[in-house]
Queue: 2 jobs
Job 1
Amino acid sequence: MAKTAAQPKTMESNHKVASVLSTGLFAILCVLIAFPLLAGFFASFQEGREVVMKGMSLNLDFSKMHLDNYKYLFSGNEDSRKYFMWYKNSLILTLITVVLTLLVCYFIAYGLTMYKFKLQGFLFFLVIATMCVPFEILMLPLYNEVTSLGIINTRAGVILPGLCGASTIFFFKQYMQSLPKELLDAGRIDGCTEYGISVKIMMPITKPAFASMAILCAMGSWNNMLWPMLVFRDTNKFTLQIGLNTLLTPYGNNYNLLIAGSMFGILPILIIYLIFQRYLIDGMTSGAVKG
Amino acid sequence: MNKVKKMLYSQKVAPYVFVLPFVISLLVFWLYPLISGIVMSFQDISFGGSQWVGLKHYQKLASDKFFKTAVFNSVEYMLLTLLLLIPIPMMLAVLMESRLTKAKGVWKVIMYIPALTSVVISGMLFRLMFSEGDNGQMNQLMHLLGNASIPWLKAKTTGWIALLLLCMWRWTGVNMLYFISGLKSIDTSLYESADIDGANAKQKFWYVTLPLLKPTTIYVITISVYAGLSMFLESFMLWNGNSSPKNIGLTIVGYLYKRGIEKNDMGYACAVGMVLLVIALAINVVQLVATGTFKKEEK
Amino acid sequence: MKRRKLFALFMTAAMAVSSMGMAVNVFAEEDTTEEAAESEEPAEGEPTAVTTVGPDDGTKYEMWSFVDLHNEFYGKMVEKWNEENPDKQIQITFSTYPYSDMHNKLMMSLQAGSGAPDLCDIEIGQFPNYSGDDSPLYSMNDALAPYEDTMVQSRLDVYSKADGTRLGVPFHVGATVMYWNADLLESYGLDYKSVKTWDDYTKLGEELKEASNGEVYLTSVDTGGVDWMWLAMAENGEDWTGGPDGTVNVQLDSVKEMLTMQQNWLNDGIAMVSTDGHVDLEAGFSNIMDGKIASFPKAMWYMSRFKDYMPEMEGKYDITTCPVFEEGQKCSVGIGGTGTVVTNQCENPELAAEWLAWAKCSEEGENLIWNELGFDVCNTALWSDEAFAYDESNTYNTFFRVKPYEVLNELAENDAIGTIYTTKNSPTLNDYMCTTTLNNVLEDGMDVEEALQDAQDYLDFECE
């Protein structure tokens, strides 16, 4: 709009007012959203016991804040070593889960979207059906099954059952539907195989979907607790979420470590988000149709 | 050998190769446990083995008042979250992607952060914020407004305000991300031609943005219906366990968990799960048929 | 164009990592057992968070708990055992899980028939799930035989099958006593020591209200816990579970009396409703520390909360027996606890059971339990043992205005500790009370009879 030279001046100033309003709205919203986390962030510099007993007060007393919790976290003592072992476990598990899930789901969605075949509709119905079954119903039979497959207490046991995530497939499919199918024929004419097309031509333009799914999948995996908890049996295989939860016991909760550790535990996922959101924002503008 | 290879590479077979992992995973990690679950809902499960009890669990469900509370809560929660978590994030996404908003990157980053936080910490943060003691932030806010402290989590209305705020806090950013992703896939030339046709912002939203956001919207609605109906963790986090005062936070999955895990009544729990399955499936199928998602494939 | 390359690069890298990850991390792990763990760790110099105690040639066991401190305790007991029994060396690998997850996992693995630990802690509320006729636990009868006579019988009973087979070994009695903020009450010139009955208690509450201008409540009543109800039932010799094979009945006089009394306290401003439901939570500690409440009944193990969360209260609090409805009644009840068990998936259950009974019932074990965990131990032979019970080096003997075992011995002399059973109906019963009935009565002021009738209707439906 702004580019058109003939715009009257009132529109310009209207535009400015709207711009201030809209930016202001997001600013206020973000302050509200950040509030609980900021409170938690400040709490991580306070004596944990104090925080939990007195509540997270609105009146911050900066003189009482200290780095002790974080010093303890990085001290290299037994608690700290445990914490970073859980941390490492979570990182590895999340990385493997994200990469495998994205690849597997991409190809499944590709097959479901880019071709016409007999079972297509039925399979798509099944994708949706799997989304509608609460995990808790499947939990006990699934646990039995994983045990008898011999993958209990392994990463495979945690990852495999959730590998073909229905929501991820669904999202890829919805995304690919809006992509031009002519590209496939163009690829075939160029002599690409069906699989080559899916990797070389379609995958690059599905980038934004990969980016959003990477974030969501990493988030899900990083924060997942119920199932890994059932599968892993050794403390040294625990993920961060399970580990943090073990700090809450009926005989003294280690709040210092819990609050500081939780705050520090947000970091990796935050970093992944910060990296991938760029791809997302670039979006379709760098897509193949135009290029 | 070559024949096999050729066949594998043919356009007819390729889709089946693509969907093969899904079919395997479906059979092994979904269908088998699901059938076991269905079978178990007609059985009493104990350490020694299982015993057929026919429709006993389902008959009991029909007159179980906690189950009714749970279903009611879950459905209510689903409807409320649909009302809150579809239009608001969609509007925010449109605003965010418009030229009006400055410093987009900053807002997007911040709005998404809640979804990244762990279950342990976000539950604790909200529980402390809505603490019924005088020191919780919400009660301090009440004091600033000249009101007395409120036992937030002990009554349905105030408890649900906390629950819905927690839900919005965690998921508004995520849903906004979905919609932004959807907006990105809309060809900008459509807006340009709308401009040429003299459409105003409102018209462009109704006639270009909204229809083209349909696939994204369907996706978000589908996952929201399921997420709403199977909500458990949010309530579990907020009430620090599965027991809330007068069961204001009891959901279907919460009840299933309580039955299957806490009370070791796996058969009954599976029956609860089957009801959830039927409800969710019915709503989703109706929704998808109504929005015409299946039609494309059937043609 | 550049971006596309970047992305392709990333995807290639990701695929490479994934295939490596699959090869190295996933499948290397499939041969899970000790060899893998052992060969991996020293090489990478990784810390071992799973604590394994004992020599490699000892009989190997796996043990789970939901409390880290318990595992530390067991670890010490393994070392002592190995010192004393060179011919019966054992090695135990300990894992600590979050409370509910550990119980879920235990349940699943026992139902699945594999994957369960050899030894495990089970919380008392969960115990009925494992003590039915088809119990998957190993009988502790033989192992416990040497200690049977001196152990508090009711504590062994709660971890037994209906036919009397012992299944679990207890940590503590959990005798309920009255904790008083003596400092606070004395500052108002009030005498709490002469309180014998609930009438006396109520009167003291009125005096306190007047003296403090209503700022200090005598106590806080629980909407999220049934301790008060248990105490009332034990005093009147009733039990709402109806005993091991009984039918549930909540319309008991003791329950009605207690609830009515509590409702009156609330109406008269003598008591408050416990913040967040009961006093064993941070908000409760805060009320105690701030002097908002002057007394509350709780089990002996609550002493450790004072040490861990309220060290400032040292010297201020006193412990006495609880008030009763009529003099001569029992005035305490065992609440809470952990039964430690040997599962039927254990390959050498005999030795495991022998060690377990020794660790939790012998003098060596009880010493550690009292001094480090701060529990009122179940081996009554030790209660009057001067060196064991009254040693000044024990924190609890100097923290309170009384030595805890003095109160315990007073209870023992009068045989004043009652028992309320935990049965298969208990989880349903407690759940209904804590979510519904207590809230209805204490928060909303519902009629006691009506609320209990409601509860009974539901429980009749539920417990068949």
Note: Confidence is low (pLDDT under 50) at residues 1-6, 281-291 of chain A.
Job 2
Amino acid sequence: MSRIRDRGSDNIRGSSPLVRRAFAGLLMAGASGISPALADSTGAAIAVHGTARGVLPCIACHGARGEGNAANGFPRLAGLPAPYLRAQMSAFADGQRENPAMAPIARLLSADEAQAVSLYFAGLRAPELPNSAPVAAGPGGLLALDGRWSDRLPACVACHGPGGIGVGTSFPPLAGQPALYLESQLEAWQQGKRPPGPLGLMQVVARRLSPSDIAAVSRWFAAQPAGDGR
Amino acid sequence: MRMPSLALVLVAGIALAGAPDSARTDMAPNAPAPAIPAAFQPPAKEAIPPGPYGDMVKLGRDVFRETGKYARPFVGNELRCSNCHLDAGRLANSSPMWAAWVAFPAYRAKNHHVNTFQERLQGCFRFSMNGTAPPLGDKVLVALETYSAWLAQGAPVSANLPGRGYPRLKSPPLQPDYARGRIVYQQHCALCHGPDGAGQSAGGQVVFPPLWGANSYNWGAGMEGVNTAAAFIRANMPLGLGGTLSDQDAWDVALFVDSHERPQDPRFTGNVGDTRQLYHNSRWSMYGQIVAGHVLGSGSMPMGDTGQQK
């Protein structure tokens, strides 16, 4: 189990310091700038307040604007395609995508609620990166931009778009996602703990990557400006 | 979009080349065995030498990868060289440029004379890029030729270097079929190339190339041959999953793709039947054939609007 999954489960099951910190962040977010119009919609209400059935507010972990949490590896949700987000909620609920933090949440959401909250985050603008330090290319950049065809690895950007900004509804953005998150997902594909994705592509690709490949390419995409692929 | 500078990428390449290979594993149980005989290995990407020669190699590589940007006056669609020649012309069985370079000059039945390498490249622009042939000696052609020659360093001069072109497929078990091909397309291709074959873009850049319609290759391109398209698809598609489709699926989907309208053959005589007789007299060309009541080629878009014409 990765660090992220461990942390995620702590977060939900107990009153760990992480949860307390998350709710402190939540209160601050509530005070600062979620527009009333958005908060009126079902999706926004779930994102900000959670539900009466016990679903925690999404923004507690995923950030006030769905920007994610790099330190803990919680992914950015803002600007991701709604069908992709919705599919992930289903995969969490039925266990195909293993995640002890998200599984109970996904199971407590009705289909309509899952749809509404997916649409809400899809509609948020991709966040600006706080640090605009130039990205060192390194082996991660080489894999991302060129692939490594001697191992039958296409470039990541061949499907995820220039700089990893995402393409259409099936190829989500990688740019600006926390490195910890990207690493954990590539490992999950290797281990069969996440559905292999359209055409099984991501499982095939992930299984051709070494641990050092995964670390390098995850860091590279984490440092890319998120932009807006749409 | 910000891209790392070329220098950084090259430095990165050196770092990667120094990393041990033992860490790489391939755990995919169903991964296809590469259908590649021992193929020539082009020089490492980062081995382009400094100086004017290396600069021309780099320009050729850039033209190859971002054709619409670096050869804009001559490009009339949304394709790039590297769409059909994967890994920027380095990959065996994906029409690698190192194998093409050592095979020219060559006689071509397509135009009934011995073609130099630059003439061959002109054909790519005229047909596959639906554009305008750069004049012989144009910097774009010099750059592409230099890049190809650099890739071919150490290769024997040969018309049939292993890995050249796309591995020829045997005749299909069943006659290729449009309806079956459509199903294969929907299951394996539409995810990237779109249900209408128009491809997909992001951030103002074409990510998945259009396979038919006004922004794809024209009726004079090699890829309009169902046998050529089938061979390319079987070896290379879906991207990253080359070799996973059956021969029959590859034939069927190639026929489906090449049974759609695309820009007119620039050699068009004004009559589809005559043009077929002159340039498409092959069982593997759908030009002039009737699909779903429509004569292919009769509704073709005019030649692409190249940057030169603007």
Note: The CA atoms of residues 42 and 151 of chain B lie 5 Å apart.
